[in-house]
Amino acid sequence: MFKSIRIKMITIYFLLIFIAMVIVGVFIIQQFESYHLDVERNNIVQVSNSVSATLQNMDWEEQQDEAQETIGFYERVGMEIYIVEKDSDFKIVASTNPAHRDQNAAHILEPELILGAFNGEDVEKDMISSGQQSVRSKNMAFPLYDETSRISGVIYVRRDLGDIYQTLDQSRVILVRSTAVALMITIVLGYFIAASITGPIRDVTTKASKMAGGDFDQVVEVKSNDEIGQLAGMFNYLTARLKTSLQEISNEKQKLDAILTYMADGVVATSMEGTLVHINPRALSMLSLDRKGSQEMAFDQLFGCAKPSLCLDDFQGDPSGWSGSEVLEMRDGTKIRASYAPYRNEKEEMEGIIFLLQDITEHEKLESMRKEFVANVSHELKTPLTTIKSYTETMMEGGVDDSEMQQQFLGVIDSETDRMARLVRDLLQLSNMDFQQTKWEQQPINLLELTHKTLITMEHTMKAKDQQLVYQPPEEPVMTRGDEDAIEQVILNILSNAIKYTPEEGEIRVYLQKENQTAALTIQDNGMGIPSQDLPRVFERFYRVDKARSREQGGTGLGLSIAQQIMEAHGGTLHLYSREDKGTRVIMRFPLYQQENQGVT
Ligand code: ADP
Fold first, then answer.
1. 14-57, pLDDT tens digit by residue?
2. Rounded distance, CA 386 to CA 443, Å?
3. Domain 5-168 identical in fold to domain 263-359
4. Given 1.10.10.10, 2.40.10.270, 3.40.50.720, 3.30.450.20, which CATH number is that of 5-168?
5. Which of 114, 168, 294, 540 is deepest in the core (most CB within 10 A)?
6. 335, 327 Cβ separation under 8 angstroms
7. Average pLDDT over all residues of the chain
8. Pocket residue to mutate for ligand 1, from 426, 501, 525, most atoms within 8 A of Cβ
9. Contact, 83 vs 93, CB < 8 A?
């Protein structure tokens, strides 16, 4: 109930006013009472002085009536006066109440006071007579002296205080009523004062709770410049600041999320206890996890404890030893490099471990290709070098006298040197193409003429093997665009392969035709063909189905890769279909160049 400031304030106001009114009331009533009692006492003293002055020299026996008359006068002032004679055993000589005359004072009046006065003292006592109605009275007794200054009697005055106490009671009632009215006014005023304070606070509280729910469009009305107004102003300022800060944080988070979502590497963050804090989509796919399943995943399940250093137990103790990297071989054959390091919060406390996952499968593949390539080049160069060296040494040692033999030896040295030169030329050409340093001419090429020219070049070789050429040239020229020498090299490579790998008396067919927007040049032989398991690799550098035979035929193992790269550089394609012992068909497709529409390839 006292949770509300409004109730508290009203209660405090109420209690303050109540206590103040009670204190003031009690004080006023007391002052009022003592004032009236003082007044009455003074009256009584005055009356007793005047009675005493009148009765001082009276002889009670003789002048009793006269004394009675004197006293009777005071009945009108509301006092009971008794004259008690000392010598006649406390007899009341005169009284404002004539019925009490000549009676024994001890039965009517307070003996204690009478005795006190007889002893020469002025005594007084407030009394409450108990009867049907309790009556308060002030009783005072004074000694009465005769001319010899002897105490001859006592003047006993009793004043009924009922009227005074009635007035006091009425005053009390008035005070209680005015207190009640004041308290009611206090409650009403307190309600409005408290409302003027609690209203804005309530408003701020409601709006703050809405803000806690994520709605930052809250503005509190500033009605005054006092503390409450300042609070409202500060609230509005804080809301605006919070809104901008949250906006900035959310923008940053969105940026970070976008980076993490679309980055090519996987990112995984875990807490110190090993629970997953963040995992980006790339990491999920790398680790073959789904988002839902990964949420409850324990640390050691993440990498399956694939490496001892990637188990949670290893991330204990000194964090300086927590960073490093491991290569993981996944079940699907991919290789992942997991680099890890601890991360800290803004208080520099250790928060967890962050992993960066990089798919290095392709990188590893390239690396092994590079190594294989270097090994191949070395091997290809070493073979002719060894031959040249051994032939030269034999000749230098004078082991060959016969000039015919010498010619034969020199012929071998020459052909091996040619082979090395071819190899170096082919490698240079490939390297230039790799580094895109080859400058391609852009000129229209008549494929009909070029095919014809190539066939004439190779005619002699074909004839030497008794191979039959089947070629039905198209009637119209077929045009493409590019570097004529390069395209000629492609056709030559393919045609020479067909001749090389087709036995004597074999058949070589050549077709040239337009296909949609391409010019297709097909060279087909019925030679030895390529086993299906070797087919996917024939375009690789140095890959040869039968190394000995290829080398025997003068091949470098680079012809098809050079041809393929030239075709790609010209926007064309190269397809090879082959069946072992049946033959091979190679289709070169070039973009068609239409002369009437100059510039369009
Ligand atoms: P090479 O200089 O050895 O001919 P290529 O790159 O031109 O190198 O060819 C790669 C390999 O593909 C050859 O060694 C050969 O085994 C095979 N090959 C290419 N063309 C043919 C073909 N027409 N018939 C059979 N095998 C072929």
1. 999 999 999 999 999 999 989 988 998 998 898 888 888 887 77
2. 43
3. yes
4. 3.30.450.20
5. 114
6. yes
7. 87
8. 501
9. yes
